[in-house]
Give the backbone structure.
Amino acid sequence: MNDLVRYALDGNVAVLTVNNPPVNALGHGVRTGLKEGIERAIADHGVEAIALVCAGRTFFAGADIAEFGKPPVSPTLREVHEVMENCPKPIIAGIHGTALGGGLETALACHYRLAVPSARLGLPEVKLGILPGAGGTQRLPRLVGVEKAIEMICTGEPIGAHQAHQMGVVDAVTEGDLLAATIDFADHVVAEDLPLPRVRDRDRLIAEAARRPELFQAAREQFAKVKRNLMAPQHCISAIQAATEMDFDGGMRRERELFEELLKSDQSKAQRHFFFAERLASKIPDVPRDTPRREIATAAIVGAGTMGGGIAMNFANAGIPTVIVETSQEALDRGMATIRRNYERTAQKGRISASDVETRMGLLTPSLDLADVAGADIVIEAVFENMGLKKELFAKLDAIAKPGAILATNTSTLDVNEIAAATARPEDVIGLHFFSPANVMRLLEEVRGEKTAKEVIATCMDLAKRIGKVPVLAGVCHGFIGNRMLHAYFDQAYALLYEGCQPRDVDKAIHDFGFAMGPFAMADLAGLDVSWRIRKETGQTQPIADRLCEMGRFGQKTEAGFYRYSQYSRTPQPDPEVAAIVEEEGLKRHDARREIGAAEIVDRCMLALVNEGAKILEEGIALRASDIDVTYVYGYSFPVYRGGPMFWAGLMGLDKALETIKGFHAAGHGDVWQPAPLIERLVAEGRSFQDYDQAGG
Ligand SMILES: NC(=O)c1ccc[n+]([C@@H]2O[C@H](COP(=O)([O-])OP(=O)(O)OC[C@H]3O[C@@H](n4cnc5c(N)ncnc54)[C@H](O)[C@@H]3O)[C@@H](O)[C@H]2O)c1
């Protein structure tokens, strides 16, 4: 026995306790310990049953991700499961915390399963672009039926203990001490001489599904829609289907083949990259883990417009009392009414209860007096995007806010240092850039000013998680990471219109690439008037968009923008009037219009992100290429199965990306196509963005 798995006796029950903190990952040592423990219990004549539990905060939360992509080392999880399932003495799993992935698969290889009410069980492999490869696709449908297995495996969403009990994943939900309950259950199985059910032998639900093969086609179509372009859910369905077409061992072989295919795929490489990228993003090299945090018990938001209202909802959702300050009663009422309407809609969908709506509204205190932010531990400004206004406001906040309060701005583009300099406490000032709709979008771009204190950064990184966001740290520049890159992307999208495309050509190519929508459908959704106003203020032009705005075509809200919309439908309809403007403006810039294929559209738009991203990285505005990926997936719906723009460039081959960028430069598409020096350097050194991240430069 090794020290990761403890073997003890309680009467005639052998208790195997796994202790591999923090999450009891099923690494090699744990697998070896488990196998030896079971074998010892089998050999031990005094033992009649085995209780399998985990120490610490959770049951096995999954495989050991450090072993990912490496050749399997014996005993593999499948080998351990075989020993367990064939064990002549009953094995009872006692589940607390989360039984995820290989953890749930291990529980399924036991004869009986108990869980505490708070336990959660799931097979989240699909989120890493793979499938449960240790029997999950073969055993789960035998227990719960094919339809429920497809739902659980293809969404990767965990279920609670009570639901698991209803579905038949666990045999009982137990209150009180889990270990004692597991041992009692084992005693009961022995006393009653209950059978040793093996999930692999249960064929009734499988046989039922085998008579309805059409359900697999329906599931394929459903997941082709909700998980567009993703291979893993389709492979999961194939593996589950195999369970209905082959015997258990045949199904296991098929599951393995499908697993191997996914593991080798670019999609899974990208999703695994993204999994680590997300976790890495909140680690800031010069802000150590033990940096002191400030307590955030109360918050205040200034401005109850589009962003302020959404930001306030995040705080109310997390149970943090929040004051919302506006300048007029009308704006305040409008803002509060929007928040209430949003909550009520969520309640109608059954995602929160009617009393949750009131609890959350009760945490929000509307006010017309800025002095009411005095008690807040953090104040977030979300007023109009105007430097003069923001500086004036921050000077006032400086006078009102309590010492030590964090003063944050939600500016999308403005200089956070200049805003901070309007106060006598620039160390307390930080940018907290939420994305619209702020109550939905997961990204929080945190902008570090020159003087921002480390403890303010550390506090805001923790706070982001508390309010359900994924934080990425950015430095100060126009547009920070996300919007600065978006600017480069839109420049190309427009350039393509002038050269020969229509909005639907660009949007279709980008949609097919995997974005939820292309740039022009997105601009229509966001409204064209905001950037038009900014262009007018800053003396810039974008003739196609300017002309649309002059015609009152502001996008979806006016039922016309780059597309036409009807009162009843938000589906963009191409509009001949727009097509004529595009052609006319195009011919003012170029002698003739040219046919542009989807591949060039994608390369122009995506490599613009990559080239700008590389500049941002080199300037130190982003800490890592992977942070840029996180920004784009969570802030701009870049398809996760391509890993983010920087990872995508690596999949394409950074040398090929560079060659294409140089080609665009040579073709006269503008100086933006001057390759970022960092890309040239990495290609010369034969390195990737990931190598750059790992080496820290
Ligand atoms: N809309 C977006 O997609 C988006 C995304 C990220 C960041 N931002 C940034 O968030 C900020 C707010 O944008 P928005 O879209 O919510 O604007 P908005 O016009 O919808 O809301 C601004 C609100 O601030 C209020 N306000 C103005 N001056 C005030 C003051 N002195 N005190 C209190 N309230 C005041 C206004 O009455 C208005 O209700 C801007 O800095 C913007 O750049 C916007």
Observations:
- The mean pLDDT is 96.
- The longest helix spans residues 598-618.
- The two ends are 44 Å apart (CA to CA).
- Residues 282 and 471 are 6 Å apart (CA to CA).
